[in-house]
C-alpha cells in the first residue's frame, strides 16, 4: 500500500499548505455540522460542480466556482458564524460544576443506561402485551437469554446480529428482539413477540 497524506495532497495540488491555529478546525467542523453550512443546498453539489468545471488548476476552479456560485461562501460563513455565536453563549455559562455534571452523565448515567436498556425493552413489551416479564438469571444469561415475557425466553440483540446470524455458533432458544441505537434513543423490533397469538 502506498499512502499520500492530506498534507502532501494539498502541497502537490496547491503548492502550499494552509495553516490554522490549533483546535480551530475541530471547532469549525463541529459548528459547520450543527449549522449545516456546507450542505449542497448552500454551497452546491461539489462532486458534480468539480466535474462540470472545464478547468484543471486550483485558481481556475476557484474563479469558475465563485462566478457560478457568488453567494455560497458568504452564506456558509454566515451560518457558521451564527453557530459560533451560539457556542460562545454556551461556553460563557460553562464552569467546573457543569463539566463535572456532564462527565458524570457520560461515565455513569449513559454507561448504566447503555448496559441496562434490555430491561426497559422487556418492560415496554410487557406493557404493550399485558404480559409479565422478568430479567434472566446469570445462568440463563450464559445461555444467551436476556429475559422472559410471559415465560417465553427472549434474547435482545443489535440489528447487526441479523447479518451475522448465519456465521455465529450461538443458538438462541426463544424469541429475538432486534434493536438499534439512534441519535435520540433506541429502536427495536419486537414483531416475533407482538405477532404471537
Task: Please explain how this structure is put together.
The protein has 197 residues and is of the alpha+beta class. The chain has 2 domains: 72 residues, no CATH class; 99 residues, no CATH class. It has 10 helices and 5 strands, in the order H-H-H-H-H-H-H-E-H-E-E-H-E-E-H. Strands 1-2-3-4-5 form a 5-stranded mixed beta sheet. Helix 2 packs across helix 6. The N and C termini lie far apart (57 Å).
Which SSEs are present, and which pair or pack?
Layout (H helix, E strand, L loop, with lengths): L5 H9 L9 H12 L4 H4 L2 H7 L5 H11 L3 H20 L4 H34 L3 E3 L2 H4 L5 E3 L2 E7 L1 H5 L10 E8 L2 E5 L1 H4 L3
Helix pairs in contact: 2-6
Key words describing this protein structure:
5 strands; 197 residues; 5-stranded mixed beta sheet; alpha+beta; 10 helices; 2 domains
Poorly predicted tracts of residues: none
Number of helices: 10
What is the averaged pLDDT score? Answer: 88
- Cα end-to-end separation: 57 Å
Number of DSSP E strands: 5
Class inferred from helices and paired strands: alpha+beta
Helix fraction by DSSP (H/I, runs of at least 4): 55-70%
Question: Quick one: biggest sheet?
Answer: 5 strands, mixed
What is the beta-strand fraction? 5-15%
Cα radius of gyration in angstroms: 26 Å
Instruction: Identify the overall geometry.
Output: elongated
Number of domains: 2
Strand order of the largest sheet: 1-2-3-4-5
Helix and strand pattern: HHHHHHHEHEEHEEH
Oligomeric state of shown chains: single chain
Amino acid at each position: 500500500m502506498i499512502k499520500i497524506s492530506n498534507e502532501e495532497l494539498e502541497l502537490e495540488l496547491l503548492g502550499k499548505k494552509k495553516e490554522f491555529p490549533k483546535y480551530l478546525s475541530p471547532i469549525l467542523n463541529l459548528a459547520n455540522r450543527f449549522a449545516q453550512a456546507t450542505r449542497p443546498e448552500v454551497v452546491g453539489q461539489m462532486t458534480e460542480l468539480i466535474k462540470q468545471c472545464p478547468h484543471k488548476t486550483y485558481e481556475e476552479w476557484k474563479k469558475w466556482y465563485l462566478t457560478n456560485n457568488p453567494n455560497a461562501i458568504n452564506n456558509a460563513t454566515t451560518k457558521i458564524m451564527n453557530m459560533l455565536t451560539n457556542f460562545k453563549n454556551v461556553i460563557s455559562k460553562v464552569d467546573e460544576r457543569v463539566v463535572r455534571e456532564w462527565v458524570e452523565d457520560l461515565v455513569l448515567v449513559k454507561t448504566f443506561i447503555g448496559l441496562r436498556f434490555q430491561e426497559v425493552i422487556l418492560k415496554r413489551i410487557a406493557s404493550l402485551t399485558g404480559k409479565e416479564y422478568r430479567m434472566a438469571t446469570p445462568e440463563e444469561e450464559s445461555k444467551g437469554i436476556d429475559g422472559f415475557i410471559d415465560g417465553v425466553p427472549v434474547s435482545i440483540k443489535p440489528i447487526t446480529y441479523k447479518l451475522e446470524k448465519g456465521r455465529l455458533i450461538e443458538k438462541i432458544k426463544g424469541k429475538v428482539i432486534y434493536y438499534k441505537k439512534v441519535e435520540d434513543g433506541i429502536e427495536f423490533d419486537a414483531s416475533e413477540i407482538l405477532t404471537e397469538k
